[in-house]
Write a structure and sequence with these properties.
heterodimer; A: alpha+beta; B: mainly beta; 18-stranded antiparallel beta barrel; five-stranded mixed sheet; 23 strands
């Protein structure tokens, strides 16, 4: 009788160790997510953004976005974001270079490029719920102190505390898909500990190389009760772009 | 009454025309505005239709047509205006070159207001310091080419074979000139009869106005250095004939010209190390004018004539605009600028001002209350404009503001008076 008990104990212990050996830490989950990012690629996305105010009234904006992602040197990460309609914001264009350290805004009416700095990155971009910083930011373990809060069969839930002392957020609660390693939801907690914004991903596309492209997402401001919904109609990857494309020269052009 | 009827008819026509344009690939705005100045009881109003057509002719060439039809009760320099009309080349004739050729608005300077290096386009007269008024320019015929030498630096070249001056209504020009002469001669500017004759400089294809500007980065600071060879855009007197009458009145005949000038400029914008979130923008300009003096002949009632020479420009001088802007966590926007010289001041008249802009958009961005202030550090005069933008629906903006001026009666800022202002704008 003793033998089966010992065998059962050994099996249980092995199972426990095995599970521990395969459990991922929060940093490892963020690393896995980084690997699922389309790195070393250029990308062009054309889509729509729907802005809803607190009374549910909607405004639709067409947009085009170009990006380049360099995993070896994040300083090379850059993107250009331009509104194509409506008339009020047509051709308003944002350029983010050096992984969001340098941001420029081109507003056709002023005929010049304006540098945006520091807390201006917290400013809402052209009436959307997205701040300049929200557009530029990734979620790398270098930028956050990450811990695994919980997990179930489908998701990990991470607590991310920003390292940036100038941030508006005390914490981000990120729900990560266990199978595909992309964030399904991010809850932004303000400096007083209250829920402020929620970013939810509704649809992704898994590429042949396993990387993930977000096609539909919603950004909600719980304080203002406003919502921005972004839907990418077409996404082209590894596109050929002229040299020095991510520059203030490009964002002044009449067409991208 | 007839004028008001005509005004209403024009507004109705503008809105009618606008509705028919929605389908075409044309953008624009229709605007109507009015202001009432207390004290003088002056009521000004107007409306405008601006249309912009910017098609691509090929992957490298674009056309820009930007015109305005404007009715304005006072001081309208032209009812039909070409704001811009040009051919634009992108990455042509070489991959590193972009250019524009035609009637252009050229904007130099990093500063948000009154940049002293932004000297290329003349401006229409305005008593307002609203954003719309500050941005208004008169186009110049020019070639503007930019050569992108490397990823960091570019070189811009402007060639302008035509001279155009600021538009200042005659009565304003006479008022300013009279106020300048009055203390010099000890006469009352109210009973001066002033006649001004102006002579434009010889500018053509062989003797153009021209400028170069290198743009790039020094460290993390966006920087530009420029040189402009041109002329002042406002006229200055070189010969003045004054006849003093026995009743104390006087008549003045002034001949004016546009002195030549060279301007060395430097522009900077970036973040201030150690002060997170603040963007600074600074422009400096060194003006090197040609020697310019005003020969004044004064004929007294007793038949004698005296001669005086007043130096208008006899040495170089500089102007600056140095400011910083910051957006707080509650989205309040602060922009404070120190100005050494405005577009209306040159040479010995250059003085110091502080300019402040505050904006506090509502959470849904429908309301944007603002405060614009300009304070003369020379005489303490100031203009404060308090108002709000309101967006009742997409593409519509209503701006309502109240402007209060104070200071010595002779100061330029106090002359603006106290004014109520309403502006309704629809963009399509």
């Amino acid at each position: 009788m003793k033998k089966p008990v010992i065998i059962t104990l050994v099996v249980l212990l092995m199972l426990v160790f095995t599970v521990q050996a395969f459990a991922l830490t929060a940093d490892e989950i963020l690393d896995q997510m980084e690997e699922k990012r389309a790195v070393n690629t250029t990308q062009k996305s054309v889509g729509k953004m729907t802005l809803s105010d607190d009374k549910g009234k909607e405004e639709i904006r067409d947009l085009v976005m170009y990006s380049i992602d360099d995993s070896e040197n994040p300083q090379n990460r850059a993107f250009i974001f331009r509104f194509l309609s409506p008339a009020e914001v047509k051709n308003v264009t944002m350029l983010s270079t050096k992984d969001g350290d340098e941001i420029y805004l081109f507003m056709p009416a002023f005929k010049k490029v304006r540098r945006i700095a520091g807390s201006s990155k917290k400013e809402k971009f052209a009436g959307t719920n997205f701040s300049f910083g929200d557009f530029s930011g990734g979620y790398s373990k270098d930028d956050y102190e990450a811990s695994l809060a919980s997990e179930d069969d489908q998701n990990y839930v991470l607590d991310l505390k920003p390292n940036d002392p100038d941030t508006d957020y005390s914490k981000l609660i990120m729900t990560v898909d266990k199978e595909k390693f992309y964030f399904k939801k991010i809850e932004f907690i303000d400096l007083n500990g209250n829920h402020w914004k929620v970013l939810e991903v509704q649809e992704v596309q898994e590429e042949e190389d396993g990387t993930i492209t977000i096609l539909k997402m919603t950004f909600q401001d719980l304080k203002d009760n406003t919502r921005s919904y972004m839907e990418m109609g077409s996404v082209e990857k590894d596109i050929e772009l002229p040299k020095n494309f991510f520059s203030i020269r490009t964002i002044q052009r009449p067409e991208l | 009454m007839k004028q008001v009827q005509r005004f209403l008819l024009i507004i109705a026509l503008l809105f009618l025309v606008t509705s028919g344009i929605f389908a075409a690939d044309i953008n624009g705005e229709v605007k109507t505005f009015g202001s009432y100045t207390f004290g003088t009881g002056n009521f000004e109003y107007g409306s405008s239709l601006q249309l912009t057509y910017n098609p691509s002719l090929s992957s490298e060439y674009y056309l820009m047509v930007d015109t305005t039809l404007k009715y304005q009760s006072d001081d309208n320099y032209s009812p039909i205006r070409i704001n811009e009309l040009y051919l634009q080349g992108v990455a042509t004739p070489s991959e590193d070159i972009d250019f524009k050729l035609g009637y252009l608005h050229l904007t130099w300077g990093a500063s948000d207001a009154f940049s002293p290096v932004d000297n290329l386009n003349p401006r229409p007269f305005s008593q307002s310091i609203s954003g719309d008024a500050l941005d208004e320019k008169i186009p110049v015929l020019a070639l503007n080419a930019e050569w992108y030498m490397n990823p960091t630096w570019s070189m811009e070249f402007v060639y302008q074979p035509e001279f155009r001056s600021n538009f200042t209504p005659d009565y304003v020009e006479q008022l300013f000139f009279g106020n300048q002469l009055a203390p010099l001669l000890g006469v009352n500017p109210q009973i001066m009869q002033i006649q001004i004759e102006k002579e434009s400089p010889d500018v053509d294809f062989a003797q153009p106005i021209w400028g170069i500007r290198a743009r790039g980065k020094v460290g993390s600071i966006d920087t530009a250095f420029s040189f402009l060879k041109g002329y002042y855009l406002s006229a200055f007197p070189y010969q003045t004939d004054i006849t003093l009458n026995t009743d104390g009145s006087s008549s003045v005949l002034a001949k004016m010209g546009y002195p030549e000038k060279s301007v060395l400029g430097a522009e900077f914008q970036g973040e201030i190390p150690g002060i997170a979130g603040v963007t600074f923008r600074a422009d400096f300009a060194l003006f090197i004018p040609e020697q310019w003096s005003n020969q004044i002949a004064t004929h007294s009632p007793d038949g004698t004539t005296s001669f005086t020479t007043v130096d208008v420009f006899d040495e170089m001088y500089w102007k600056a605009s140095v400011g910083a802007d910051y957006t707080a966590e509650d989205n309040t926007y602060y922009n404070l600028i120190y100005l050494f010289g405005t577009p209306y001041e040159e040479g010995k008249d250059v003085s110091s001002y502080l300019f402040l802009r505050l904006e506090k958009p509502s959470p849904d961005n429908k309301w944007k209350p603002f405060l614009n202030s300009i304070l003369s550090l020379e005489d303490g005069s100031m203009i404060n404009i308090i108002g709000t933008d309101y967006k009742p629906k997409d593409n519509w903006t209503v701006t309502f503001s109240y402007s209060v001026s104070s200071g010595p009666a002779t100061s330029m800022l106090s002359m603006a008076g106290d004014t109520l202002f309403l502006n309704v704008k629809h963009v399509f």
